Amino acid sequence: MSNSPLVQARILSPNHSGRRNQEITKIAIHHAAGVINGRNLAGIFVPRSRRASANYNLGSDGVIVLGVDESNRAWTTSSSWCDNRAVTIEVGNSTRGPQWLVSDYVLNRLIDLVTDICRRNGIYPCTYTGGKDGVLQKHEWYKNTNCPGPYLGSKFPYIASEVNKRLRENKNVSNPTGGIYRVRKSWSDIKSQKGAFKNLENAKRCADRFGLKVFDANGKIVYPVGKTIDQLAREVISGKWGNGEERKRRLTQAGYDYYAVQRRVNSML
Ligand SMILES: [Zn+2]
Questions:
Q1: Are residues 126 and 47 in the same domain?
Q2: What pTM did the predictor assign?
């Protein structure tokens, strides 16, 4: 069993039951009932006195933090039956109650994460049936709680259908040629290749490290779709992304890996 390659930090909680006693067949999506970044959200579950945790903490800033290894049973859904079967995710809101909205950016990160969990655990299709028999699970079915809230709760059918779309698309890509992602300067510059990966996230990390690009089996560039780490680092140095927390927030919200950019900035200075 593995954890998601989408994780950007590990802030582990001691609040779990050790190894789960069931195979992973479900995903429980919670809302944090608060506007809070990923690291702070994970930090809430670090004290033992909290008696709660989640496998993943997806903050309002879109940052994904591992709280409990996927192989372990987290204490999230007030149900041993559910938490032994479900990978659990806490999701940061963009507004407080009564609506408890979630930003489109965070919703998209959530769909990425659920897709990845399904792919690695062989879950397909990702179903939402409105009941415990489906894959997607709601806390309010197990406890008298306002979780996942009216907005996120209304998105469960959409999340399921987007996840299935992505799972199907990936299958199409990987069928004909084995779906190897190659990391090169350009598709024709074979000698510049630094690696070939089955896992796109690993290919992206390699591309970031060497300032290269990721190409699919047909030679189509798949990453970076936006700016390269080098471009972003130069922009940061010239002041285009602000400083401190503001820089972190803006880069993350634009879909970039703040820490990868910051490392490049530090190595350039
Ligand atoms: Zn909950």
A1: yes
A2: 0.66
The verdict on 138 and 185 lying in the same domain is: no
CA of 147 to the centre of ligand 1 (A): 5
Pick from 248, 268, 259, 250: which is nearest to 205 by CA?
259
- Cis bond upstream, residue 224 (ω within 30): yes
Distance of CA 137 to the CA centre of its chain: 18
Place of tokens 């969990």: 117
Ligand 1 centroid from CA 112, angstroms: 20
Domain that holds residue 250: 229-268
Give a yes or no: residue 241 inside a domain: yes
Q: How far is the CA of 72 from the centre of ligand 1 (A)?
A: 18
Distance 33 CA to ligand 1 centre (A): 9
Residue type, 133: D
The domain spanning residue 158 has which CATH number?
A: 3.40.80.10
- Taking the centre of ligand 1 as the mean of its atom positions, its distance from the CA of residue 36, in whole angstroms, is 15
SS3 annotation, 36-83:
CCHHHHHHHCCCHHHCCCCCEEECCCCCEEECCCCCEEECCCCCHHHH
Q: Which of 124-128, 131-135, 156-160, 198-202 is predicted least confidently?
A: 198-202
Ligand 1 center–CA 252 separation, angstroms: 25
Domain count across the chain: 3
Query: What digits encode the pLDDT tens for the residues 87-135?
Result: 999 999 999 989 999 999 999 999 999 999 999 898 999 999 999 999 9
In this structure, is residue 4 part of a structural domain? no
Cα–Cα distances in angstroms (integers) from residue 90 to residues 121, 149, 208, 246, in the given order: 19, 12, 28, 23
Distance 138 CA to ligand 1 centre (A): 7
Examine the domain organization and report whether 96 and 217 are in the same domain.
no
- Cα(142) to centroid of ligand 1, in Å? 10
Flag whether 138 is in a domain: yes
